[in-house]
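Thread title: Can someone regenerate the structure for this chain?

I was given the following input by a collaborator and told the matching structure tokens would be attached. They weren't. Posting the sequence so someone can regenerate them.
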Amino acid sequence: MRKIMHYIIGCCVLLCMGCADWLDVKPNDRLEQEEMFSTEDGFKNALTGIYIDLKSDVLYGKNMTMGFVENLAQHWDVSAETVEDYTCKYDFENSQVEALVKDIYAKYYNIILNINNLLNFVDNGVLSEDVYCLIKGEALALRAFLHLDILRLFGPIPGEQNDSKILVYSRVVSRDYQPMVSWAEYIVFLREDLNAAENLLKKVEEKGIHDDFFAYRENRLNYWAILALQARYYLWIQNKEKAAEYAKLLIANKRFRLSNETDLVKKDLIGTSELLFAVHVYNLEEKVMQYFFRGGGVKKDMKKVQNDLFENDVTDNRRKYLWNEIKNETTPRYTLFKYQQEGIAGNSAEQIPLIRLYEMYLIAIECNDDLAECKQLVEELVVARNISVLNVDNLDKKNEFVGKEYQKEFYGEGQTFFYCKRKAMKEILWTDKEGGKDLYVLPLPKTEIKYEY
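Best answer:
Regenerated them for you:
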């Protein structure tokens, strides 16, 4: 990776649309910020603004779910000499790709800066005990969530790290230079944030808070989502025992269940019963129409999907319900219908999933060498997705099943590239590029990024 000048960080507040009026104000001194965080509503608005920022197209509204990282995974057939084409070719020196990566990197740290600003005031005594645990817990969880994805995108391939400085783990609001830290230091900071968030939210999640701010937990980094994030974190750092431990906690929890064909028939294509954490995008229908269904929308060759991805399994519910041909064009297109959510009622619609129960099953299967236990979990997935009978009678077959399921299940959700990187896969489906450091470790932006306030 290229060496980069670090951030010059100044004081800030959220710059989001759709929140309280004060979010449009840029405070220039400590007094103005103290006024903002002098009420409970000020903290609530600040946290809401951070969640709004997550769903920008730069991050999870597009690039880090259905867009950029899906092109890194070769999931869309793209037009030649476009930014998508250069991304598929892993041409990180291309000026368009370089600019896109720079935007993603900057957005991550901008949101983290806003989180740190909130955390800078959270101990000022304004919040009641339960609301304090809720807001501080979610803020710490969000900081960990974002830093983990920065690590997954820009950090080394797990198992290939060394003692060199790799990234900034930003925990303060300061104008001072923030140095990069090593992998070992970075994952300790991550673990500290995750553990603190887990402990804080455990105190309030089960008993609940009689406050509208506590509603729609699937759209917040709730306690259960933090447990799932712990599983994802431990898997990334190759601690399979801890990853499986956390994954099994989610599988055993009866408030979540695998979606099934009945849900798909009802047009719940996103599997709302599985959502542990998702962003609610109010204009998702228009976004999906533009990105998937209108002329020039994303597509994948039908034979590649049916033959290579699903291996001619005609019973698989995902092939049956989530993929279809758009024929009202000169050249029919085969594309993903997962985000068409007309069958989901009210606020449960317009969701882009970021963590789902299905991933916990795959983590538990991957991290367990007890074939009897694995077969039981695999059978639950087979039934839920109506997968044809398959052989998982040895560890190699079991692990092969997991890899193929990441491809099938998380299409359009931005997880497959990270699976390939974590496994240091030399061969990636639908590309002749050999997987390695140059492909999996995105270069940091070349220019110094400054935030002006």
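The radius of gyration is 22 Å.
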